[in-house]
Amino acid sequence: MKIRNFLMFTILFIAIYVNAQNVMQSPDYIKALTTEWTGERFADGRPKVSDNLLERLKEITLEEAWAELIEKGYFNQFEGNWKLLKENDNTVMTGRAVTAQFMPSRTDLENQVIEQGKTEGRMWQQKRTVSWAMTTLVEGDFYVADGYDKQSYGTVVGSNLGNGVWARSHRGAIVYGHIRDTEDLRKVEGFNAWVKGTDPSYMRKTLLTSINAPIRIGEATVLPGDAVLAKKDGVIFIPAHLVEHIVLTGEVTELFDIFGQQRIKEGKYTAGTIDSKWSEDIKKDFRSWLNTYKGKLPMSRKELDSFLEKRNF
């Protein structure tokens, strides 16, 4: 019996160990990481946050998103102090995270990664592991790479890879590290990158070790399929199952502000009244105001009514 148990344990250990060596994480593993997501998924297991929500997410401020994440107990989803490839006051981009983990190179580990890459059908000639995560991108994906803030000989994005990211996803890149070929990258219309710096050296002392595993971007933890909200002042990584809540909360807050400011100007309520917990009369007034609102609601009226039923405002 002891021998049988030992053999079963050994087989299980080997199975787990072999699976753990995959460069591209399995769909089952990604599903296990994101169990709170109940919607559609990609073939690789990542949550498929809708294009509609990603577009609406652009209008949510970093403060609005951050406040709701903290309310839900997520304190490590923001990273600031970026250098943008293209500085623009209107810079904003959203997408679904594909994560790439890089580490300082080590010959024996690199050999194992290359061998595993062969079994996964990846381009392994000349040790071109840097492009492996990029080749998995689809429309709407955001390339998110942990380059451990390495400067020289660790530039994980150059002009070729940046062009590849844009061609596949029509989104940008977030690199906790440095990039190169910035003059050429700025010529790629629509592409942008959030980075910690630039350096002219090419990558030769850094190794890709995993795709779509949990990674650290500065002070933030990122899972594959997180919704990325990238703006000039920072980047927030939103768990997929919270995106709809955060978008709706931000949109309704904006409607509250429009209603409140209008009523203050009309002299119906004071600023202190609007900033306090609303009475039933104000709530009723707000619902009546919605029926005559001339602006375009960002959500459906059904979504809004359902949200208001649960909201303690």
Automatic annotation (TrEMBL):
Binding site for Mg(2+): D181
Keywords associated with the record: Magnesium, Metal-binding
Pfam assignment, any one: RraA-like
Keyword Magnesium in record: yes
Cofactor section: Mg(2+)
Listed InterPro entries: RraA/RraA-like, RraA/RraA-like_sf
Single GO term (MF): metal ion binding
SUPFAM superfamilies: RraA-like
Protein name: RraA family protein
